[in-house]
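Incident review: delayed structure delivery

Summary: a single-chain prediction request sat in the queue longer than the usual turnaround. Root cause was a stuck worker, restarted by the on-call engineer. No data loss occurred. The affected request and its eventual output are reproduced below so the record is complete for anyone auditing the incident later.

Affected input:
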Amino acid sequence: MTTVTTAGTAIFARRESEVRSYCRSFDTVFTRARGATLTDAGGRDYTDFLSGCSSLNYGHNDPDMKQALVEHITGDGIAHALDMYTSQKAAFLETFERLVLEPRGMDHRLMMVGPTGTNAVEAAMKLARKVTGRRNIIAFTNGFHGMSLGALAATANAGKRAGAGGVSLPDVTHMPYEGALGDTDTLAVIDTMLGNPSGGIDAPAAFLVELVQGEGGLNAASAGWVRGIAALAGKHGALLIIDDIQAGIGRAGSFFSFDDMGVEPDMVTLAKSLSGFGLPFAAVLIRPGHDIWKPAEHNGTFRGNTHAFVTGRVALEKFWSDGAFADGVARRARVLADGLDRIAARIPGARRKGRGMMQGVDVGCGDLADAICAEAFRNGLVIETSGAHGEVVKVLAPLTIPMEQFRAGLATLEAAAEALTPTRFAAE
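Output delivered after worker restart:
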């Protein structure tokens, strides 16, 4: 068992950088977790509606993944191998090929990158520029793609960009996402801007897009708009990169957020729940014709986490061998939508956003959203916000959360909203 000192959180304030963030919303020391439940040092249980910001789509400490990892470690299995061949990597690749790629007719290769999503984005952007000989990347309003400087250039949020300390964030043009201009057809706007030789926009190497904008406020692109973006990329000689770091691995309802949309991206960035267990693991899927890297042209000491290969393989076999898991996600998504609609109906101007198990309520005000989340935490629910002004209360519950616990968590959230808007609820 982990030893917790009597100092509580004082050590963090004394020795950890001011850059820490989530802990400021959840001021307690967590000691263990299982499924959709977090437990703190005082023995109090919390329902987890954050899931490691979608890094724990299958919940905490899945017993089958845990057993496989323990057996691997106690059997002196490889822990670190750079990008050398290992039996664990082979098993993961074979399983990913069989359960994910082949059923979709995808011939993409996997590029193992450094352990974070931002590194996957950096690699994809770098490769798109290498393939096309162009520098400019088209990203979108409200998009979030990471915090290292290249990916940060594609990130739209002013607060995140300010962290660069005034360093230039070049070679990215931000275009309006679907709905960003009200009823205006943003596809037409983008096409016009790129087609105008005096539009001032350099020919793009790639379009980089999230199909559900996790940090940007849960804006969800329609299939028609996504097909339109794919067509524009083709028309203008650019690659299509879909950032599925947060929306993928079942979060938006299917393994990829673009499933059944009629598009085949040139590259897909993956991270967060790719390992299944919360272990660092990121990768880029690349169509073979674009895989023009020279050996070690993009590398990293921790590219390909062998422990993550072990748990990631088990996750694929356990949850993606048939359609049962996806059906369960769909059922929970309907329960989530109903619960959020009830909350939205009680707050003037509020609306539900997102899709699948990546939904929330735009309450119109960051202060109100923060207050709702704080009240929910006081009552045993871990939940956060997103959006340009933090105005969206975002639910990222584990996709495996027991239905009874899920409904109870939604009831806690609704009660928190009611406590913060009592007169509005009373008028119902």
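Verification: The chain has two domains: 10-31+45-62+323-402+417-426, 65-319.
Action items: add queue-age alerting; document worker restart procedure.
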